[in-house]
Amino acid sequence: MLVNEKTWALIISISCGLYWLAHSTIRPIISLYANNNGATDWEIGIILGIYAFFPFFLAIPIGGLVSTFDKNKLLQIGAWLMVVSAGLYIISNSFWMLLIAQTVAGIGQLFVWLIFQVMITEGKSKSNHTRIATFSLYMALGQLLGPLLGGVLSDTFGYSAAFMLYGVICILLTVVSYLLKSDIKVTEYKKPDFLEMYKESARLLKNLGFVAALLFSFIVLFIIDARMSFLPIYMETLSFSNTVIGLLLSVASFSALLIKFIYPYLIKRLGYMKLLIGSFSFSILLLYLAPLPHNYFTMGILIFITGIALAINQPLSLSLISEQTREDQRGIAFGMRLMGNRGAQLVDPLVFGAISSIFYLEFAFWIVAVFLTLLSVLAIAMFAAANSRKEAKAAYVPSKKEQEV
């Protein structure tokens, strides 16, 4: 593509915004749609979990294909699958049809989101923070408008209207996928070696800093998915309308939008460690405090504050993975990140569904909060250990005897 790197990053970022607009429009209303159609808590958990089931196993193979196959073709495959899923959502009138729609959507969105992440990290590493900040800005715009549009449309015209909007956005993404060309081409396409992909994945897991980055991403997606999928059901029990629920979820994205402008500054000023500790401490508060009695105002304040923290965590994990890997490892690295993310989106609804069916929804929030608190402490400790090793290696001066050898 005959454009400079800045323009290229802007095109990818706008495309990312379209993707997240589509995803955020329907993700919060799927649980409400299923709930209003008589699905049990356990069935809702299965419907939400199936979205991530196949992508969990496909993330690494598809990530490996990025280095051996045309990125644009993979993007087109994903965009077409999203279009098909839109049609299935529109005609879904049963538990099984919704399961199929969720399955196709999950696989299609895996392709699209993985390719966009790889594309935005191509180019000069020095400008990564700025490009990722722009990318995250448009991501936040999509996440801001999606829940609001989905809530208003489903309240005013019914759930089919929200599914139709999703379909229109998917068609736009498909058009973009044919116009978009990657600056970095694979000069020689070769048959993918899936065994080697898993070997490379194993090698990456020896990098403690990379593993910590994967855990950070997993925790963030776990919290976000709980906010997008089960918090709407809880707010519905408080007699909040779909429009109000969509508006409150958009508050989180609005807070995220504010933080994108200062993200590069925060990285330079505070560094990774302080940002990680502070952002995770506030992020998990959502799960501890959400089940308490709320009105519109208090729920909005809680979502706003925790939204800021989660907004820092998302680009932070992208930056960490980019710094911890070589360019030729990015496909598999981001495939592993997506595998962890889809793992969060698979486990999250199953855990919430199971606990809610046995006890009650509020109890599920607290159980998950304790689990993620412990996991956050572990991830931060791993990152600190990785940093200590890196600093010790950089400071090490070999003895004269060692130099002679």
UniProtKB/TrEMBL annotation:
Q: Which UniProt keyword terms apply here?
A: Membrane, Transmembrane, Transmembrane helix, Transport
Q: Does the keyword Plastid apply?
A: no
Protein localization: Cell membrane
Q: Name one GO cellular component term.
A: plasma membrane
Can you provide one Gene Ontology molecular function annotated for this UniProt record? Answer: transmembrane transporter activity
Task: Give the transmembrane ranges.
Answer: 7-26, 46-67, 74-91, 97-120, 132-153, 159-180, 204-224, 244-263, 270-290, 296-322, 343-360, 366-386
Say yes or no: keyword Transmembrane present.
Answer: yes
**Which is one Pfam family of this protein?**
MFS_1
Major facilitator superfamily (MFS) profile domain location, by residue?
Answer: 8-387
Task: Give the bilayer topology.
Answer: Multi-pass membrane protein
InterPro entries annotated for this entry?
MFS, MFS_dom, MFS_trans_sf, Sugar_transport-like
What PANTHER family does the record tag this protein with?
Answer: INTEGRAL MEMBRANE TRANSPORT PROTEIN, INTEGRAL MEMBRANE TRANSPORT PROTEIN-RELATED
The name this protein goes by in its record = Putative MFS family arabinose efflux permease
- The species this protein belongs to is Saliterribacillus persicus
